[in-house]
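Section: protein folds

Sequence with per-residue tokens
===
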Amino acid sequence: MKTEEIIAKYPKIFQHYEGNPGDVNWFGVPKGWLPVVDALCGAIQKYCDSTESKPNPDYLEGSAYDPRDPRTHRYIQVPRKQVVCIQMKEKFAGLRFYTEGHDETVQGMISLAEHICSNTCEVCETREGLGYTKGWITVRCQNCAEIDGKVWLSREDWKDMHLNRAN
């Protein structure tokens, strides 16, 4: 899967806007995380395409229910606001997915995707034997870090290094 395919698959989420020439704000996600981003966008779009129940402002208090007269319906179904991605990228070994129009439910989806990505190799998608690279901090398995010639530290070594630096 490629970023371009995700953008094409979810045109309501990835709406072109003036401050994003050439869609540059959407091309910072490593390929190992794209399946997570695809699942996130699918969940967001399904949620946005659903409706929510709200109190009917035109409800006639005390009226008998009539399925043909919406004024007798205490609650009405209204469309949800469309969530739009402003930017997605990798930063400090974590996914960043910035949006407009989201609510607490969508924020929870984004937080879950960010957590999954921080526990997934950016290159091969494995969730086993992860650590961090030095320099530009990325989350990778040891094999992918070595193939790319990166200095790799296990999560335990990384934590110990930063704890010792603080003392």
In short: The chain has a mean pLDDT of 91. Strands lie at 51-55, 75-79, 84-91, 94-100, 130-133, 139-141, 152-154. The CA atoms of residues 101 and 166 lie 39 Å apart. The longest helix spans residues 34-49.
